Amino acid sequence: MTKKEIPKDPQKVARIMQAACHAFATAGYRGAKTDVIAADADVSKGLIFHYYGSKQGLYVATIQHTTQVIIDTIDPAIYDVPADLVDMIVRGTKYKSDFGRSHPDEMRLLINAYGESAHLPAAVQKQMRALYDQTIATSRQMIRNVLKQMPLRPELDEATVVDLIVGVYNQVFSEFQAHMAKHHDAQSMADVQWVVERAKAYMEILEHGFVQR
Length: 213
Hints:
Pfam families: TetR_N (PF00440)
Organism: Lactiplantibacillus plajomi
Largest sheet: none
DNA-binding region: 33-52
Structural class: mainly alpha
Protein name: TetR/AcrR family transcriptional regulator
Low-confidence stretches: none
Keywords: DNA-binding
Mean pLDDT: 87
Distance between the termini: 62 Å
């Protein structure tokens, strides 16, 4: 049986999401307190649990909401097909940096959520993985669009090339998570610029090879 959707007051939801985003961004999942979130949102703590079931449910809802905020504020120019893989990384980074300046809590929340997902409850990790997979699915389409503009060697299978590039994405993501497991000082894209440079270096090698001709 499908779980019945609980009707929610849009204004209260907006206040809860704003308060939860700030709390989780500044204190992390474990440090954030639902009673503080409730007070900042001017709602009862019971209402939060009525709407989201648990702190875990609230956290995942906040991540989903923040992801949607990013989608809703994307400049249409971001959908223009980049010239190559490196341009794709640079353009995506510029957008994220601009977004981070106008939405600091949202950016810090996502950096910490994905960077420290290994420390989250198992159920939340599973849902975070599903969100990451959705992001990768979107990236796959962008990669395919870029490859159509590039002179691939005729013997190469496009699907295999896409898989290779996604594999690099996953490698960079793993390096990012390993770094975040040791360092907890990332506030914005500027603090993780090394990840961007790493991705650019990988993409340049993929495009041009590593054997001198």
